[in-house]
Design brief:
heterodimer, A: mainly alpha, MetI-like fold, globular, B: alpha/beta, four-stranded antiparallel β-sheet, 11 helices, phosphate transmembrane transporter activity (chain B)
């Protein structure tokens, strides 16, 4: 009977189901843990003589936390910094990754060189992120930034303008870090386009460039959004490599300006990841700031969730537009 | 074959290889203008490859090497310097499985026109309507021109693909088993359509269906193992073939 039990594969199913259950439990536990520790942080303590709704006060406290500057104990600079670095990264990595994927999949001739490049791209995804940070400091900040200073900001030397860690280098480093993810996911999207759609397009007298531009890229656009979602999720939480290239624990000013391009690309920023690390471990009064660490973690998770939600909605629209109904339903 | 018919396509000693496999050997034939020519033969005989060599579609599918010449109006399409995109505009092709683009009905037909640089909405409307009418689809889709083409039935999709192909006014239309994935009623519609289309175009059709070849074509070519066994008027081929192999195949004794 036991033998039969094994032959039917019952233990195998239980093992699979158990793995799923354990994974779910861990993720749910993590979320519950963070929620438990963060939701209560701003609940007002009973103050005698204080009137007014406690809920109102609670929401006000959250608002102060989210919108306040560092000096006020708020995390607004960190939220803004995270959003800016991730969006700028997205702007940089998407065209580069998509173009590279199109070249690799549509133009490059299959052979040992192409295989080598593919392996290199996959290996790039496995490089520890701290290495990207060191590279970013050496190449982007000192070499690129230094060159820009020498060429355009000679007057203000020896005080560096771009030759010092800043937002643009943070985003570039993140773009490099997430480039393999974008290339691989986009290439998979390109590979999934039915051959007969391409042939149909060629059959109407389209050149290869027209086939790519009018059929392949629109069809692959949902895959590109997926690639971007993965990149954003990866980038938003990075801390270690970014310490080298422009993320600091607190900034004197936000990297915004009232004039075009409205961004101070050379300015240092702070991020939620950095804030969590700093206030959780580096702070002299760690036990006082601990609840705030959980609150920051909750904000970071929510932020990533919202960015992904936006990307998901975009993908759904693209899918509808280009008729990949099977993907939508 | 009677000599007064002008040849739209002339195949001269055409041989075709895919990587290390010989697909066609020394084929020579003249495809008459404004007629329907059918290619028949057992699976793997090379009839689809021969069809696709008329607008150089093979090179998109496989690693090919071609010897010999294919003349379209007297000019070799395999010559260096031939614009393949322009060739394919002149020689359209419809495949076995309908492959509408996942766009609207209208945009499917307008696709090739836009590639030709036609942008004026009024002109596009006109050409889309006339192509859909020629493909006998207009009455069925006039109310849902801007709905997704993917929702049409298989037979409608195939006629849409034909409309898309004829919208850009090709001179030759190649049909690679256009009805083999369709039900009998849709097949009949496609056959009637072919009959109408031959007034304007030169049609070449690959088919597995003997009755279909006999019904619609003016000329029939029988291919076997990469070679052209016999090519003649359809009537002659089906009543009095000169080759034993043709007779065997047509009567179902082999293949």
């Amino acid at each position: 009977m036991l033998q039969n039990w094994f032959r039917q594969g019952t233990p195998w199913i239980w093992l699979n189901a158990g793995a799923v259950a354990l994974s779910l439990l861990l993720v749910a536990g993590l979320l519950a843990f963070i929620l438990m520790h963060s939701l209560g942080v701003f609940w007002p303590t009973d103050l005698p003589g204080h009137s007014g709704s406690k809920l109102w006060l609670y929401l006000q406290n959250w608002w102060l936390f989210l919108s306040g500057s560092s000096a006020e104990g708020g995390i607004f600079p960190a939220i803004l910094g995270t959003v800016l670095m991730v969006l700028l990264m997205a702007v940089l990595v998407t065209p580069l990754g998509v173009l590279a994927a199109v070249y690799l999949h549509e133009y490059a001739k299959d052979g040992p060189v192409l295989r080598l490049i593919r392996i290199a791209v996959h290996n790039l995804a496995g490089v520890p992120s701290i290495v990207f940070g060191v590279f970013g400091l050496g190449f982007f900040v000192y070499f690129l930034g230094g060159s820009i200073d020498n060429l355009f900001y000679r007057d203000s030397l020896p005080t560096p303008t771009f030759g010092t860690p800043g937002l643009i280098w943070v985003s570039l480093t993140l773009a490099l870090l997430t480039l393999p993810v974008v290339i691989v996911a986009t290439e998979q999207g390109l590979a999934g386009i039915p051959k007969n759609l391409r042939l149909g397009c060629f059959a109407l007298g389209a050149t290869k460039a027209e086939v790519i531009w009018k059929i392949v890229l629109p069809q692959a656009s949902p895959a590109m959004v997926t690639a971007l979602m993965l990149a954003i999720a990866r980038a938003a939480g990075e801390v270690a490599p970014l310490i080298f290239v422009g993320v600091v624990k607190s900034v004197p000013a936000l990297p915004l300006s009232s004039e075009f391009p409205y961004l101070q690309l050379q300015q240092k920023i702070t991020s939620l990841g950095m804030h969590i690390y700093d206030s959780g471990i580096q702070s002299p009064a760690a036990q006082d700031t601990e609840p705030l660490v959980f609150a920051s973690a909750l904000v970071l998770i929510t932020l990533i969730f919202m960015l992904n939600l936006a990307a998901y909605r975009l993908r759904k629209r693209l899918n509808l537009r280009y008729g990949n109904r099977s993907v939508v339903e | 074959m009677k000599t007064e018919v002008t040849a739209k396509l002339e195949v001269q000693d055409l041989s075709l290889r895919f990587a290390d496999k010989t697909v066609l050997q020394h084929i020579s034939m003249r495809i008459p203008e404004h007629k329907i020519t059918a290619f028949i033969g057992p699976s793997g005989c090379g009839k689809s490859s021969l069809l696709r060599s008329f607008n150089r579609m093979n090179e998109l599918l496989e690693d090919t090497s071609t010897d010999g010449r294919v003349l379209l109006d007297g000019a070799d399409i395999y010559q260096a310097g031939v614009e393949v995109a322009e060739l394919r505009r002149r020689v359209g092709i419809v495949f076995q499985k309908p492959n509408p683009f996942p766009h609207s009905v209208y945009e499917n037909v307008a696709f090739g026109l836009r590639l030709q640089g036609i942008k004026q909405p009024r002109k596009l409307d006109e050409l889309v309507e006339s192509a859909l009418k020629k493909a006998a689809l207009w009455d069925e889709v006039r109310d849902r021109l801007h709905h997704s083409a993917v929702n049409l039935s298989g037979g409608q999709q195939q006629r849409l693909v034909i409309a898309r192909a004829i919208a850009i006014e090709p001179e030759v239309l190649l049909l690679d088993e256009p009805a083999s994935a369709l039900d009998p009623i849709s097949t009949l519609k496609i056959e009637e359509l072919m009959y109408d289309l031959k007034q304007h175009y030169t049609l070449v059709i690959v088919t597995h269906n003997m009755q279909q070849a006999a019904r619609v074509s003016d000329y029939t070519a029988f291919l076997n193992m990469g070679q052209l066994v016999e090519f003649d008027e359809t009537n002659k081929m089906f009543t009095d073939p000169s080759q034993r192999a043709t007779e065997d195949y047509i009567t179902g004794r082999f293949g």
